[in-house]
Amino acid sequence: MNPTTPLEVVAGVISSPNGDVLINQRSQPSQFAGQWEFPGGKIDPGETLHDALARELREELNIEVLESNPLISITHDYPHARVQLNVRTVSKYRGIPKGAEGQSIRWLQPGALREVNFLEANGPIINAVLLPDCYIITDSSRYGQVNTLRRLERLLMIRKCIVQVREQASNSADFGKFAEHIIDLCHRYKAPVLANADPEIAHELGFDGVQLGFDKLDKHPVRPGPGAFWIGASCHNKKELAAAERLGADFVILKAVSNTAPPVGAKTRYWEQVSTLCDFARIPVYVLAGMQFDDLKRARDNGAQGLAMMGCI
Predict the structure, then answer these.
(1) How does pLDDT run across 60-72, given as a tens digit for each residue?
(2) Distance CA 67, CA 57 (A)
(3) 312 C-beta neighbours (distance < 10 Å), count
(4) Pick the residue with more confidence: 227 or 99?
(5) 181 has pLDDT over 90
(6) Could you give the residue ranges of the DSSP H alpha helices within the chain?
(7) What is the spatial distance between Cα 308 and Cα 177, in angstroms, rounded to a whole number?
(8) Cα distance between residue 18 and residue 190, in whole Å
(9) What secondary structure does DSSP assign to 19-62, as a single string?
(10) At what angle do helices 173-188 and 145-156 cross, to 10 degrees?
């Protein structure tokens, strides 16, 4: 194989009814024995991603995969090879998973995945598992703070979301009070809430992370905030995506093509550009460009984590 040609592999994220996620430990004498990963393996010539995943999980876990859907696709450079890792959620299967090849398996709550000794490439996959497919950006200047909280709660009652407070954060008593209310609301529904603000201010106010504009990426020599602090970045192109990844951002909002929904005649070209940038990214991507919930499937089919929507609450 040409050393620049990625080794194509597929992996599956399997969840139990209570939300636990299955992980697989590499056993001797395999490379990286003892480390954990999401189950899967190499794609044989001519196989679709679903068929390859079904074959691998039949061999590894003794289950029959009936339905799977794309989650994230990333490339990762190991010392011995470049790997193209195609990850799919297993939405329906038959059988009871077990270590059919003598390997250990574990079921963990998603929040515990970060504490496990995973293979290096799995960091973005863990973030994709933890992140919902809907990123909501508030706009209390349009709706008012009280109405924003009411509209956001109605949405959180029916959808899992990550929330960004877009208002310019400051140490003012007014913003601090609003931050307290919106953080409490989001945490009641187990929704991470980020501030479009200075990381130190966001952390001090109790936010779960920050959203950094593309013009702020080079102003941080190292990843800001504590280890569990979510870092999102807003990007338009490959250069900015690369800068976000160098900083250690957990995900990006892609504002690549348009600030509004593309005209009908431009939609094909629009989604081609989205697909190209999602293929380039090595971390989860939310698409922002006048989207509605009906666009979610197309965004996922083109490699995105989900949709970012502004002013829809």
Answers:
(1) 999 999 999 999 9
(2) 12
(3) 15
(4) 99
(5) yes
(6) 49-61, 123-130, 140-143, 145-156, 173-188, 199-205, 238-247, 267-280, 296-301
(7) 25
(8) 15
(9) S-EEEEE--TTSTTTT-EE-SEEEPPTT--HHHHHHHHHHHHH-
(10) 10
Number of other CB atoms surrounding residue 44 within 10 Å: 11
Q: How far apart are CA 290 and CA 297, in angstroms?
A: 15
What would the DSSP string read from start to end of 250-274? SEEEE--S-SSPPPGGGHHHHHHHH
Domains of the chain in start order, with CATH, are 7-114 (3.90.79.10), 134-310 (3.20.20.70)
Residues 6+ apart with CB under 8 A from 218: 243
d(CA 193, CA 175): 15
Stated pTM of the model: 0.88
Structure tokens at 45: 């010539």
pLDDT in tens, 104-138: 999 999 999 999 999 988 999 999 999 999 999 99
Residues in contact with 37: Cβ distance below 8 Å, sequence separation at least 6, in sequence order? 11, 23, 24, 25, 26, 118, 119, 122
Lowest mean pLDDT among 9-13, 32-36, 210-214: 32-36
Q: Which amino acid is at 239?
A: K
**Closest by Cα among 235, 310, 232 to 280:** 235
Token pair belonging to 235: 């990007």
> Chain-wide mean pLDDT for the chain?
89
Q: How far apart are CA 55 and CA 63, in angstroms?
A: 9
Cβ neighbours of 15 (radius 10 Å) = 15
| Residue 75 Cα distances to 11, 120, 251, angstroms | 13, 12, 15
Q: What single DSSP character describes residue 6?
A: P
